[in-house]
Amino acid sequence: MITCSALRGYQPTALEGKAQEVARAADRLHEVAERYRRLARTVAEAWPDPTGQEAATSLLQLAEGVDREADRVAKIAPILDTAAAEITVAQQKLAAADQTDAADPFLAADDTGTVTLSAPAMLLPPLVQLSKFHRATQLTHSYRNALLRATKADQSATNALYELAGRTPPYEDDTGPVDLSDAAIRDQAMNSVQGGYGDCYFLSSLAAIGNADPQFIRDHMRWNPDTGRYEVTIYENTPMGVIGRTVEVDPDTLPDATRGPDGEVTFLSVYEEAYRQTVHGAIFTRTGGLPSDAMLAITGHEADATLVRPASFDEIRETVEAQPPGAVAVATNPGGPWPDPEDVPYEQRLCPRHAYWVRGFDDQGRIILVNTWGTDGGTSGGVDYPGEVHLTEEQFREQTMQTARTVP
Amino acid sequence: MEIYYDAVMAAGRAAGELAADIGGPRQQLHDVGTTPAGSGFELDGALSMLCDDIDGNLSVYQERGDDVGTRLYESGRAAAQVELTNTRLGGNLMTRIES
């Protein structure tokens, strides 16, 4: 992926200048072709014998060849112009992120766009530290959004130029309008915001799987450039066993549901719509369900799931720290015995009857649970809940019920 | 012969000149493809590669244009030679009759 310094140093105007030069070359080639045609007419009229006619035909063939080259050259200009425009927008987004980063002394961004807390932030009170952590996550998303946009513009233009030259494009994976690179999938898993469906169990399982194995998402959510739709494989549990079904999803006509933080379509948006088109998904995205069912629908095999007591930290570590890593989603308690959420400090608070996914463990050995509501969290029943929670094993066991583990 | 002698000679010259005209756009594309946009992105390399590819194709058209030009020009010379020979034969014939 393009780095921040490379994007800052890029000059889109140079690209626009190239586009203009290319357009002028195409015009000149068309002029040469037209002169070949005029000459062919002159020869054909003034030299009526077979030798003259053959010469005129040769000239016409030359004119057609030069015209074809002129058309090929003319196609380059708009490709370069589009890339220049996209890179300009990416630079504006990068500049906005730079401004936010510079305004907060507790945040530091590196050249890849990853924002971390600076050392003095460790001295802040836990609640403030948590909000800074969320800010860092959001800012990382802003940086990566800008870098991915520039990278995608660069790669799609590069691919187009290779195709024009009749060569195999260097970036063969056309993933459609949703960026499905490893970094993008993990970024979308962290930052997507659940819409109005009651499918936290599905989204948390999906985000956990995407974070653990981005290739699984690319293998099961394929872009068809001919139809302009994604083909998503969803598994259904039927009396005849588990059957994989391909569901087509048009990214341009998705309902207003799960999206990225800036309203963009993510892999979770597409997958959610595919799942809603299955019998299981149509019912349970309205009523709510369990992560174990969602993992079956996504992977086609049963998850290793508990029902009323969560797995231990050792068991969860065994899955998320394995090579290749697995995915773990967690359902919280449906009701009593339940500590009143308002009695739990904000940064440790889990929403009842909700699902989270496990991002890993922090340096104090606490489990990191990610909320499907996005990095800002949200409000339920008049109580605020954070986007990410770090819990000790005791706190975790007190507030959660089912854990579902799978290696996709 | 006189009917198309001038046209054939002129067409030969013009076809050769046209072939040379492709050199302009060729140079323009070559410059675009080899002048970096200053990014270090993949796009610079791809553009350079494509311009080289087009440059190669234009070379072929330029050579073909030269071939056609040369052939037309040689045909014109041949036509002129025939005309000259006829004139000389006619002249010799007139001399014999007069003598």
Q: What this model shows, in words?
A:
The complex is a heterodimer of chains A (408) and B (99). Chain A has 408 residues and is α+β, with helices and mostly antiparallel strands. Chain A has 12 helices and 13 strands. Chain A has helices at residues 4-9, 12-46, 50-103, 126-164, 182-191, 200-212, 214-220, 267-276, 279-287, 291-299, 313-320, 393-399; strands at 107-109, 115-117, 221-224, 229-238, 241-249, 304-305, 327-332, 355-361, 367-371, 378-380, 383-385, 388-391, 400-406. Chain A has a 6-stranded antiparallel sheet, sandwiched between helices. The longest helix of chain A has 54 residues, at 50-103. Chain A is elongated and about 100 Å long. Chain B is mainly α and 99 residues long. Chain B has helices spanning 2-21, 23-34, 42-98. In chain B, α1 (2-21) packs antiparallel against α3 and α2 runs antiparallel to α3. Classes of the chains: A alpha+beta (408), B mainly alpha (99). Chains A and B meet through α2, α3 and α4 of A and α1, α2 and α3 of B.
Number of DSSP-assigned strands of chain B: 0
Low-confidence segments of chain B, given as residue ranges, are none
Q: What multimeric state do the chains show?
A: heterodimer
Work out the largest interface and the residue count of each chain: A-B, 50 and 41 residues
Rounded to an integer in angstroms, the radius of gyration calculated over CA atoms of chain A is 28 Å
Distance between the termini of chain A: 26 Å
Strand count, sense and barrel status of the largest sheet of chain B are: none
Terminal Cα separation of chain B, in Å?
Answer: 29 Å
Number of helices of chain A: 12
* Order of helical and strand elements of chain A: HHHEEHHHHEEEHHHEHEEEEEEHE
Please indicate the percent range of residues of chain B in DSSP E strands (runs of 2 or more).
Answer: under 5%
The amount of helix of chain A comes to: 40-55%
